[in-house]
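Model it.
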Amino acid sequence: QVQLVESGGGLVQAGGSLRLSCAASGRTFSSYAMGWFRQAPGKERRFVAAISWSGGSTYYADSVKGRFTISRDNAKNTVYLQMNSLKPEDTAVYYCAAGIAVSPRRTDYNYWGQGTQVTVSS
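Modeled.
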């Protein structure tokens, strides 16, 4: 079992930055690939970024490539999402997830956090 708790969301102006954190419980954190997804009001949950168990492989949605960076610290059981050059269309609830592979598919992730709200004002 892995429990995930996101933090770091908030209100920021367009062009600004935020860093999201996802703290995991459980000694098996380092064996999981980790992903970030987001869900805007009235829309489906969509893939943002993912990272392998070692941190050696990352994968991004085209919409965030070059602006967002995913990283992890296995010693701290934490995964991060650094978000730069934020746009109003990045507004959403952001979820972290633990899964079996670096994948954009929601079904490849077994454990989910409760989410943290990110709002980008224009």
